[in-house]
Every structure is written in C-alpha cells, then in structure tokens.
Amino acid sequence: MSQDLLQANAATPGDDLEDIALGEDYALTSEYVEMVVDAADRGDGMRLRDLLSALHPADVADLMGFLSQAHRSEVLPWVPPALLAETLPELDDGIREDILEEVTPGALAEALQELDSDDAAALVEDLDAERRREVLAAMPESERAVIESSLAYGEDTAGRLMQREVMAAPQFWTVGQTIDHMRAQGDDLPELFFDIYVVDPGFKPVGGVPVSHLLRARREVALSELMEPINEVAVDLDQEEVAYVFEKYHLISAPVVDQSGRLVGQITVDDIVNIIQEENQEDILALAGVSDAGRDAGVMDVVRSRFPWLAVNLGTALIASTVIALYRAEIEQLVALAVLMPIVASIGGNAGTQALAVAVRALSNRELNASNTLRVVSRELMVGLLNGVGVALLLGGATWLWFREPALSLTIGLAVIINLMAAALAGTLAPLLLDRMGRDPAVSSPVFVTWATDTIGFFSFLALAGLILL
Amino acid sequence: MSQDLLQANAATPGDDLEDIALGEDYALTSEYVEMVVDAADRGDGMRLRDLLSALHPADVADLMGFLSQAHRSEVLPWVPPALLAETLPELDDGIREDILEEVTPGALAEALQELDSDDAAALVEDLDAERRREVLAAMPESERAVIESSLAYGEDTAGRLMQREVMAAPQFWTVGQTIDHMRAQGDDLPELFFDIYVVDPGFKPVGGVPVSHLLRARREVALSELMEPINEVAVDLDQEEVAYVFEKYHLISAPVVDQSGRLVGQITVDDIVNIIQEENQEDILALAGVSDAGRDAGVMDVVRSRFPWLAVNLGTALIASTVIALYRAEIEQLVALAVLMPIVASIGGNAGTQALAVAVRALSNRELNASNTLRVVSRELMVGLLNGVGVALLLGGATWLWFREPALSLTIGLAVIINLMAAALAGTLAPLLLDRMGRDPAVSSPVFVTWATDTIGFFSFLALAGLILL
C-alpha cells in the first residue's frame, strides 16, 4: 500500500504532495515519512526539497521527530533557509539542539532575524555560551539588544514570553487617528495583534480595544469610548500563572507591564496554548514518576529520566517489606496470608492514585483552597469508607469461596476498609501539603502515597490476622 | 487575619472589593469566599450584591464551586441577571445543572440571548427535554433556529463549537470597502473576530486576512493581495482534532466549512484553550482510573466514579494472587519469598506506569505512528533492560545485606530484570494497540499494565526461586 502510494506520487507536483502529507487527523502520515526516508536513502536531493517545501514549519518539525538522527542529517541541507528558521521554534528541545549544532553562526543569526523576539530569545537561550556570543555578534545591534533584554528576564516568566512590539495608543485618539497611525507605522507594529492598548501619558495601560471593535466603529469615535477593562500581566509573573489568567478570562492577548506599571510588551494566546499543553503534560509525566526525556532522547537519556524514581520506589517497597518481615511467623503458620496480602496493598495503591489525580487536577485549576479543604478531605474519607465497604464485600466473598475460612474474609475485609481510608487521606493530603509548601504537588506525592498504601495495607492485614486468626 | 480583613473592608466600595477578591495568583481568595459565606449566613442581600458585582463571570463561577449547595441557593438571587447569563457557561457541569433548575424558563431564555450561539447551544443541550422545549418556546424565532441548528451537529464536533456569525468578504473587495462594510453591518458580525475570511462566489473560503494586516493596509489594496492560506475545519471534525490543528499551526481562528466546502461558521482559540485543558485533564484522570465526578459531586457520585475501577483491579489482583497460590509450598519452605515478592511486582508496576505515561503523551501529540513504532518499542525494551540491571544490583545488594543468601539475591535480581522488560513492553504496546483499534489509550491501558506487571512479577520471582533456591 505505501509502495503504491510512492509510485503514484513520484511524478506529482508539490501541490498534491501537501494533500498526502497529512492524514485526516492533520497529523503527518507514516507514508509521507517513508517517502522522505526513501528519498534520503537514494540521496535524491531534488525530491527531498520538493517533499520538504510542501510542508508547514510545524510539519517539518514533526517530520524531524520521526526521522532517525542519520536521516535527519541527510535531510537538513535540503530544507529551504526561510522554512528552517520557522521550523526551529517548533522542534523538540533535543532535536533542536542537534540541529543548531549543524548550522553556522552566520546562518543562524540570519534565521533568528526572521522570528518574533520571543522565539528568537528562546533559541539563543539554548545555545552554549561560546556559540551564543558568536551568533549574537553576527546580528545587527538593534536585534541583538532586543534578544539580550529578553534574556534578562527570568526563565518561564511573562517577560520571556512577551513580544516587545505592541500597538499602543493614547486615550484621546480617535478611531481614525489610530488607523492612520497603524497605516503609517506598519513596520514597528507586531506582526499580529488583536487588541489595541490604550495608555495614559505615563505609558500605563488604562484599557483595551479589540481590533474587531475598532474596525466597526466610525472614524470620529474616541478610543476612550470604545475601551474595555484589561487584565495586565506583571513582567515577572510565572508562565503557569499567565496561562491561568488567559484560560480563566478567555484572553486573546494581554499587555505586560513592568514594576512601575508601564507597558513593556504583549503576550498572545498562541504562545499560551503551548504552555497549557506543556504544563498539563508535565503533570501527567510527574504523576507517573518520569521527567520528559523528549521524543528523540537516546536510551541512556531515557534511563536517566526514569531510574531515580524507580530507585526511590525501591526504597519505599523495601520499607513496606520490613513490615511483612515482622509477621513471618504468622505467614509460616498460614501461607494464605502471603497469597492475599498483595491484594490489600494493590487496591489501596489504586484508590490512592485516584484521590491523588483528582486533588492534583483540582489544585491546578485552583479549585482547592482553605475555604473548602475540610469539606473535600471529609468527602474523600467518606468515599474511602464506602468504596472500602464495597471492595471488602467482594474481596471477603472471593476469599470465602477460595479458602472457606470466614475469619480470613473478615480480616481481609477490615484491612481493605482501613487501607482505602488511608489511601483517601494520603492521596488528598500529600498534594495539599506540598502545594501549601510551594512545591509542585504532582512531583513528590505519588511516592508518598504508594509508600503509605503499601505499608498500611500489609500492616493492617497481617496485624489483624495475628489478632483475629491466630 | 481573615476576621481583620472582613472588618477593614466592610465599608469599602466595590472597586476595592475587586482588589481583595483575587490573590496574587489571580485565583479567588479564601478570605473573599468567607466574606460571601458570612454575608449569606447573615442574610445580608445588599452586601452579597456588592460582593458579587465586583467579580468577573469566571470568578462568580469559581465562587459557586467553593460554596456549599445551601450557600449557593442563598447567594443565587443576588447575582445580577446579566452577570448570571455570562456566568452560566463558566460553571462546572454539576453546578450548572443545579442552578439551571432554579431559574425560570423565561429568565433562562433571556439569559441565553446574551450569549454567543455556541455557548447558548451548549447550555440548552444540558436541559432535559421538557425544559428545553419550554426555554426554546420562550425565545424569538431567529435565535431559536440558530440554537436548534447548532444542536443538529454531533456532540464534540466543530459544528457545535463554532459560532455561526463570521466576517466574510469576496476577494475583489478592497480594504476600504471591507472596513465600510464592517461599519455598516456591525450588528451581524461576530462580537469578536480576528481574521476576515475571503470567499469565492460559492461562499467557499479561499484565504484569510488577519485584522491586524487589514488595519495596516491602505484603503485601495485588494483583499486578494493581502490574503494568506488558511486552515479550514470540517463541520463534523471531532473537537480533539480541532484543538490539535489550532495548537499545531498556532491558529487564532479558523473557518468552518460544510460537506460542500461552504463557509458556515468560525471557531476561535478561546474555546480551544478550554478543550485542550479538558482533554489533558481527562488523560490525567483516565490514567488514574477515575472519571471526573466534578468538584461539586456528592459522595455517592464520587463513589460511582471510582468503584468500577477498583472492582476491575480487584479482579486482576486476584488473578495475580492465584500465581502466588501455585507456589505456596515454596513460600512455606522459605518465608523470605513472601517478604520480598511484593517488591518485584511494585517496581514493575512503577516502570510500566512510566512507559505508559510516555506513550500516552506521545500518542496524544501524534508523535507515534507506523514509521517509528519499532524504534520506540525497541528503545523501551533497552531502557527496561538497563533499568532492570540497575534495580537488580541495588535490590540484590539489599537482599544480601538482609538475608545473607547470594542465591536469593540472584533470584530477585533476575526476576526484576524480567519484570522491567515486561513492564516496558506492556506499558508501550497496550496504548499503541488500543489507539490502533480507535480506542482512547489512556482509559484501559493502566489495568492491563498493572495486571501484567503483578502477574509476571510474582511468577518470575517465585518460579525462579523454585529453580534456583529450592
């Protein structure tokens, strides 16, 4: 099938290539990737250039992710320079670093000038000190200054995210004056803007006018009549907070102000979409105990991103095992205890993970604060109790069918109820406490929750067995 | 402290209330929630109105989430009608259903007319058949028709997300004609728009002009000179795919077209931000085995959202236990096996969760397809092997320190290596296969991965023990 496609399309012009590049789900098709690999293997540069030129920068970046490092080096020289510049900000970090190393400082300096100041600064930041100096030296003074001042803001702050170009206007201007100004000053304006920021004589924003409102108004209307309240963003605000503000108030753009309240730049929602995606995916990975090694990471990078968590969990599992060791005599006497005890720990772990995911989600949506903590924690405890009773009935029944020993059913039932309540508490309180301490609740909670449910699971079951059964 | 705040602000006007409502992180403060609760308890309606009027609709929705049901009923009558209308789309589903029941059909019909057609349709959809009929009957013919035709599209499709109002212009218009048209037709245009869609005589989009480009151009320039290629969205495209297109191409708005390619509406990025957030959070919850019961869900709703998963896991844990039961004789002979076996299963479970989270993330970013599956799976296997060797050394060492029995160290080391490779396979292949079958990879994979790592963990350790030790 992919072979047929290859032949059918070998002679088609660039326009049709676009149609087969993307599937119905707008993702790059594996057939297209194979066509590129095939052309690279044949060393067919003309074909590579056709295949690449048919793609949007985001799809070129995607393609690079699908290629092996060897194929990437083969393909890279055939990416037209302007397309390469636009592709760089779209690439995964690891792949971008590789590619940046293969480009000369001069070519890179040229590529950077095609980009918005925020994207250019982000790229320069990734370079090592030596290369950064070379690349900046190859840029014109003014562009270099813009990038350097962007890098002066803390990583992951609004200052880094913002573009310095904004469309600002004094409030006494009319719609007509504003449009005339825009026509005259076109080059100094941001490439895209969605709001005009109305400023006072001290250049502090006092309101905003969506461009679609400006376009609908008559030329003689004053901006002060059209303007609406706006949400300012402080230049040192963390990007996660910036994303929250955009999401909450459905913003398309926001003015960024410095400590004295002066307008210094704008942030637009297209940059925020990436951050929301990143922050959410960090939570998914953090809850699973893995840092993102990137799609192109080598085996050793991936090992490094996962081993620490496994080592920590090994520690907690060993602690839980010392609890079992305390009850060796009981297990020797009744080996059914060894058969059943992992079930108590396992169900507890699952219930703890459920409570934890719900709490982490609520915290990241700012749905949990001092005013409802008590209500949420007591609800979780009730849920733990009720689920515990439900699981206890099922598990007690299964145990009876298996071992025909009612006291064993009672023991495991009680242990499950205790462990599911413990899981509810641990899964809710661990992220709450970490958040209160200013730490990321997704990062360290899972290890604590697993440790608690393992230890309490083994202990409650074996200790109760000692009391009830033996 | 919160008491001081209450008194200090009791007499301040609405403007200052706004300042204390939100914390530095732009989230509603617990102090403000307590001020509202306090006023509700005192039955102080005037105070409630002041407190509520100082808030943005998104913050009123947030406030409702923090209040108990009783307090919510107390507060509701004091929300000004226009503010209530804007608040409805922002509310959590469960809370919105409660509130919609307390509002009369007439009042609701009026509120709906203040909203965009997509928001209004989403609200009407939530009503039961009887109430939906009443509310639609109370609306003017034209608005009813808009809502009914929106509801005719499948749930979670572009058709549901879109607004029907668009700013379209034929390609032979000049900038001046377009602006004059917008000034004249103001009321029929969308409240906000960011691109002008250029259409052919068949009303099919042929390009787009960002408003900021239109504003910068001279009046005599033709739209055909300014227009850029645009990404169309089919009216029946799933919202997740729509979000992917927006995110990938950094879109601010996109035209929606019907089967014949005619322009029928527009989707703007502010609606997409919510969907990206929702889809990600669904993944977080699905991986933890919990469906979202909503922040306001009662205890029984939460139990129902979590019990099924616990019951399924109980089943898999029982299956894993039957493996242990096969080796009862070995455990009776050497009770250290019972002490150590949960460690092998637990580490395997952790490694499987890591691989699973990475695969689910890669799938949702469309980073995995036929062209790199083999590479990714073999990388995961290598990672499993190397992490397995690392953990085996640590755990073998710990076991030796504890039990002074080298053969036991060897047994557990080999078992861990086997289980970590199994975890890598299960954690990667389960989501890949589910995705290939068109199912959500986050939903059913975890149960399979846990079952595999538990069963293989116990089996490899106990069977090896039988071979090596006994």
From TrEMBL, chains A, B:
<feature type="transmembrane region" description="Helical">
    <location>
        <begin position="381"/>
        <end position="403"/>
    </location>
</feature>
<feature type="domain" description="CBS">
    <location>
        <begin position="226"/>
        <end position="282"/>
    </location>
</feature>
<dbReference type="Pfam" id="PF03448">
    <property type="entry name" value="MgtE_N"/>
</dbReference>
<dbReference type="InterPro" id="IPR036739">
    <property type="entry name" value="SLC41_membr_dom_sf"/>
</dbReference>
<keyword id="KW-0460">Magnesium</keyword>
<dbReference type="Pfam" id="PF01769">
    <property type="entry name" value="MgtE"/>
</dbReference>
<feature type="transmembrane region" description="Helical">
    <location>
        <begin position="335"/>
        <end position="360"/>
    </location>
</feature>
<keyword id="KW-0812">Transmembrane</keyword>
<keyword id="KW-0813">Transport</keyword>
<comment type="similarity">
    <text>Belongs to the SLC41A transporter family.</text>
</comment>
<comment type="function">
    <text>Acts as a magnesium transporter.</text>
</comment>
<keyword id="KW-0479">Metal-binding</keyword>
<feature type="transmembrane region" description="Helical">
    <location>
        <begin position="446"/>
        <end position="469"/>
    </location>
</feature>
<keyword id="KW-1003">Cell membrane</keyword>
<dbReference type="InterPro" id="IPR006667">
    <property type="entry name" value="SLC41_membr_dom"/>
</dbReference>
<keyword id="KW-0472">Membrane</keyword>
<dbReference type="InterPro" id="IPR006668">
    <property type="entry name" value="Mg_transptr_MgtE_intracell_dom"/>
</dbReference>
<dbReference type="Pfam" id="PF00571">
    <property type="entry name" value="CBS"/>
</dbReference>
<protein>
    <recommendedName>
        <fullName>Magnesium transporter MgtE</fullName>
    </recommendedName>
</protein>
<dbReference type="InterPro" id="IPR046342">
    <property type="entry name" value="CBS_dom_sf"/>
</dbReference>
<dbReference type="InterPro" id="IPR000644">
    <property type="entry name" value="CBS_dom"/>
</dbReference>
<feature type="transmembrane region" description="Helical">
    <location>
        <begin position="409"/>
        <end position="434"/>
    </location>
</feature>
<keyword id="KW-1133">Transmembrane helix</keyword>
<keyword id="KW-0129">CBS domain</keyword>
<dbReference type="InterPro" id="IPR038076">
    <property type="entry name" value="MgtE_N_sf"/>
</dbReference>
<dbReference type="InterPro" id="IPR006669">
    <property type="entry name" value="MgtE_transporter"/>
</dbReference>
<feature type="transmembrane region" description="Helical">
    <location>
        <begin position="310"/>
        <end position="329"/>
    </location>
</feature>
<comment type="subunit">
    <text>Homodimer.</text>
</comment>
